Each structure stands twice: as C-alpha cells, then as structure tokens.
Amino acid sequence: MEFLYQYGLFLAKTATVVVAIAVIIVLIVSAKHKAKKGELEFNELSEDYRTLTDDLQQQLLDKKAYKAWSKQQKQQDEPKQRLFVLDFNGSMDAHEVEALREEVTAVLAVATAIDEVLIRLESPGGVVHGYGLAASQLDRIKQQNIHLTVAVDKVAASGGYMMACIADRIIAAPFAILGSIGVVAQLPNFHKLLKKNHIDVEQFTAGEFKRTVTVFAENTDKGREKFQQELEQTHVLFKNFVHKHRPALHIDQVATGEHWFGYQALELKLVDQLQTSDDYLVQQFRCKKVVQVKYQIKRKLAEKVGLAASTAFTSSLNTLSNLSFWR
C-alpha cells in the first residue's frame, strides 16, 4: 500500500507538471501568433539635456544673466557629429537580440564614419548561440567603420563580456562586474528516481554522440567525457574571440572563469576607462547630437502574459537541457 501511495503521488506530481507545461505552450503559441510588429522609437537625449540645463539656469540666474546665457547658447553651431545610444539588458536566453538587430539596422541606415554608437550594456551572460548572435550585431557596426563604445554600469560577464569586447572602447563603473570568461553547463538527472519507481526511459539516437548526457536516461562515463570535451572546445573558441578583439589582454590570465570589479578590470586591461555611462553622455552632449534608438514591440495584456510564460518556460528548459552557457 505504501508503494502504491508513493507511486500515485509521483504520478500526480508528474501530471501537474505536464499540465502546467501544456498551458504554458498554449500561451507561448498564442503570444507568437498575436504579437504585433514592433516599431522604432527615437529620443533626442541631447535636447532633453539642453532643456534641463535651461530650466535650471532660469531658476538660478537673474533675468539679465539668464538672457545673456540664453543668447550665447543660441549662437552655438548645431553639432555635426551624432551619437546613437542603444540599450541592451540581456537575459539568459538573450531574446533581446531580436530588438538589437532592428536597432543596429536602423543606425547603420543613416550613420557615417564621423558618428559614434554607444551601447549601454548590462548582462550576466547566457546561452552560447544567443550571445554569439548579439556579439555579431555589434560587429556589424565595426564593419561599417563606425566607432563603437560600450558602457558597463553594473555587469557584463561571460556572454555579456563577449559582446563588450567587440567595442573600440569599453568604459565601466568602478564596481561594475566584468569578465567571467568561461563556460558552464549543468542539468539534473532523474534516472535513479525513475528507476526506484520502476519507470523505464528509452532513448533512441542515430550517431554515437547525438546525445551525450540526458535528464532522464542513465548517463555514461563516455558521454560525460565527450560533453566535457565540447565545453573545453567552446571555452577555447571564447578565449580566441576575446583575444582577437582585445589583443593586449593576457588571455590565459583572465580566461579562468573569474569575474572582476571595474578597478581590477582596468588593471587587467579588460576595460579602458573607469567612467559611468552618465558621465560619458554629459561629455558628449557638449559636442554631439545624441539620439537614443529603441525597438519597441506593442503588446496587449494577453500577449504580455504569454511572453512572460515563454521566458519562464525557456529558462526552465535551459536548466534542464544539454546547453552550454557563457558563465
């Protein structure tokens, strides 16, 4: 009786998980079918800064002094150089790259060699293929001979640093986290639990290493060894990529999987300057027209719920699947 009770409890839990997954899949499909095409939004940050400055001066100066200051400002020439600002706040699956590619395409349609692009980058890393594509989007800017600056205020680790290293110049806040040039993968294995409850899992593959390690079947030493080899190969590719874009780095010193704060990263040449994105922008406002470019998808409430479910479901699958991570 005790066995039947435990077995029934196990089946109930399994059924609950299956039903939950089915509901999430329905929401995902619904969201994908209903999602509207996004649109580009432009915000002239330099104009906002001038308005802010003007308001403060009007409050601080007497009428005569303000009038003289205002006249002087109007006599200044309109800057010819432009700074395009893009924001990338990356998650584990790097789905934000879909917006990034639209933003980069828009900038490249109008930018010239005298312009500059600033990426305000925040990411702890994630899946290899997602961040590989994100880095390729930044490389598109470099290929057009447009100066690229990356600003890290909080974190650009692992896949995030893979993106950052593309830049001509990396600036970082003093206590921003950078580095973590390594690869990790982990997944649970339920084989013993299934075996205890007399549940068999049969796995069929064509190709010796089509599946190296798995969640439900019994893993073998040979499969584990092959999977470790794949992680090592990915790490080598990661190291070579970073070293190609930042040749001054002592790559073996920094590619240990460790992360560093901004102060340490500067000494290790992982970054070029300690500075927040705010300070950098204030400097640019004085000599360039600064425009923020953002690709925004308009969604209804049901679509937002579906996207949230999609993100949670994808994160769960990534944890359970045979994926490598820049972490």
TrEMBL record:
Write down the InterPro entries for this protein, in alphabetical order: ClpP/crotonase-like_dom_sf, Peptidase_S49, Peptidase_S49_N_proteobac, S49_SppA_C
UniProt domain Peptidase S49 N-terminal proteobacteria: residue ranges: 2-138
Pfam families, sorted: Peptidase_S49, Peptidase_S49_N
Give the UniProt subcellular location, in the record's own words: Cell membrane
Q: Where are the transmembrane segments?
A: 6-29
Domain spans labelled Peptidase S49: 142-281
- This protein is called what? Protease SohB
Q: Name one GO biological process term.
A: proteolysis
Q: Which protein family is it in?
A: Belongs to the peptidase S49 family.
List keywords of the entry alphabetically: Cell membrane, Hydrolase, Membrane, Protease, Serine protease, Transmembrane, Transmembrane helix
Identify the PANTHER family for this entry: PEPTIDASE S49 (PTHR42987), PROTEASE SOHB-RELATED (PTHR42987:SF4)
